[in-house]
Design a protein that fits this description.
Strand order of the largest sheet: 10-14-13-12-11-15
Order of helices and strands: EHEEEEHEEEEHEEEEEEH
Shape: globular
Number of domains: 2
Largest sheet: 6 strands, antiparallel
Number of strands: 15
Helix content: 10-25%
Strand content: 35-45%
Radius of gyration: 20 Å
CATH class of the largest domain: Alpha Beta
CATH superfamily of the largest domain: NusG, N-terminal domain
Distance between the termini: 48 Å
């Protein structure tokens, strides 16, 4: 790497070592982010709530120098950086911010890799997910909608009250109307 760029990078790690490597990165003073979700797993004698990585085998790291880049690669269990061509891919801050919102303990999410048939595109207008664009998957009674938020090729399912949503068409109309009022 000739010229280093500060930013969020994506590290590929060995399977089932995400939490351990995240801890090792912190011990090395490397800021990292491991998005997780809660799931229930059934064993033959019990059911248990477990925390799983949202993106298995991946950890987001914020690097500020070439020395941090090298230190990150030397951590046991780190296989390497995800690259576009010859250079490590930089993850936009907006994607990290969206993932941090979804990783909030107040939000109950489910994860699927299924592709859904395209539905109405909407924007979340109120609440902790304010500003995220998503797709309607299913109506859940009179007041709730199941929506899909697509982040880094993972479909994240969230139940949202209908009063927190606005359709993209209405959003565009409101934006146009506010521009005319401002002029």
């Amino acid at each position: 790497m000739n010229k280093f760029t500060n930013g969020w990078y994506l590290v590929y790690v060995k399977s089932n070592l995400e939490n351990k490597i995240s801890g090792l990165l912190l011990k090395s003073n490397i800021e990292n982010f491991l998005p997780t979700y809660n799931s229930f797993r059934q064993w033959h004698d019990r059911k248990k709530k477990v925390t799983l990585p949202l993106f298995p085998n991946y950890i987001f790291v914020y690097l500020t120098s070439t020395s941090e880049y090298i230190a990150c690669q030397k951590i046991e269990g780190v296989s390497g950086f995800i690259k576009f061509g010859k250079y490590p891919a930089i993850i936009p801050v907006s994607v990290i911010d969206q993932l941090k919102i979804l990783n909030s303990p107040e939000i109950n999410i489910g994860v699927t890799t299924e592709s859904f048939k395209a539905g109405e595109v909407i924007t979340i207008e109120h609440g902790i997910l304010n500003g995220l664009t998503c797709e309607v998957v299913q109506h859940r009674g009179n007041n709730m909608v199941l929506v899909r938020v697509d982040l880094l090729n993972r479909n994240i399912l969230v139940d949202i009250p209908t009063n927190n949503l606005i359709s993209e068409e209405k959003s565009k109309i409101n934006l146009t109307a506010s521009r005319y009022r401002a002029a």
